[in-house]
Amino acid sequence: MKIPLKVSPAAEEYLASVGKPNVSLSVKGGGCAGFAYEWGTTDKKPTVANLWLDPMAEMFVFGCTVDYVKELGGSFLTVINPNAKSSCGCGESFAV
Fold it and tell me: Which residues pair with 25 in a beta bridge?
């Protein structure tokens, strides 16, 4: 099975530190630009690292990279999506 997305070293380290349950990533309709990433937790078998990817989200994240960002105000997982045609100002939603 070809993995549809990459996980950066920083995200892989973070995901490993989270342990069980695994982190889940799905895509839902909504947000200002049309689609939004939805992070959660699950006991399902991980797709890559400790990340379970919703099979319905694969077409939206194919070729993307999951990264872990550390900033002064906090840290978070983010999806770098080179396929997005547009996104909202806050970066929470995207269009393909």
Answer: 39, 53
| C-alpha span between 74 and 95 (Å, rounded) | 26
- Radius of gyration for the chain, computed over Cα atoms and rounded to the nearest angstrom: 13
Q: How far apart are CA 34 and CA 95, in angstroms?
A: 5
In 3D, which of 39, 65, 64 has the Cα closest to residue 52?
39
> pTM for this structure?
0.83
Residue 66, phi then psi, degrees to nearest 5: -90, 130
For the segment 30-84, what is each residue's pLDDT rounded down to a tens digit? 766 678 889 999 999 998 889 999 999 898 888 899 999 999 889 999 888 887 7
* Under 8 Å between Cβ of 35 and 93: yes
Q: Which two tokens stand for residue 56?
A: 């319905």
